[in-house]
Amino acid sequence: MAAETAGSVIIGDDGLARPAWAASDPLLREYYDQEWGLPVTDEHGLYERICLEGFQAGLSWATILRKRPAFRTAFEGFNPDAVALFTAADVERLLQDPGIVRNRMKILATIKNARATVALRKEGGLVDFVWQFRPVATPRPVVHTDIPTQSEESVALSKALRKKGFSFVGPTTMFALMEAIGMVDTHLLDSHRRGSSGVWQEPAR
């Protein structure tokens, strides 16, 4: 439970400063503290994140996090080689799965993205492809409204992924991905996680 506010962040009962979205829900708090914003540099993990960000479109991230174990079961642990082989019968099966988001277009996109991920291996792989769009600078937000919803790099990444056959990879979704995997650091400046990714060196304050 949040104890008090300190400007742009909320001080938790553990004395640590977090943004409001990560301050109360235990699941979001754990995700923020242990996962969000840390570099994801393996194909498997990056494919999963792209797909989950796509499923999140129009929904809350808390909803996706709660369903993540079911998503992992439904999509063979987000193994792109396995998902690339899914058939129309698999799509119909997944549409009956109450544990996941039963959206046909998003399910089809997850399969399509698996095939595109496998195909990208001939060009160096998904990880190098995505990380080449890392910007030269990262935002330094004081309050949540300082954080952009997309950037020049997320627009370019979106276009590039679409050309490679990916779906549900719009500029806003890709900026959320870039935040989640440490390509940009949008932790608020007073957050206890600011600068924790190791990707960005925080200037002296």
Automatic annotation (TrEMBL):
Keywords: Metal-binding, Zinc. Zn(2+) binds at residue 187. It holds the Pfam family Adenine_glyco. This is DNA-3-methyladenine glycosylase I. GO terms for molecular function: DNA-3-methyladenine glycosylase activity; metal ion binding. One of its GO terms (biological process) is base-excision repair. It comes from Arthrobacter nitrophenolicus. Gene3D superfamilies: Hypothetical protein, domain 2. InterPro entries: Adenine_glyco, DNA-3mA_glycosylase, DNA_glycosylase.
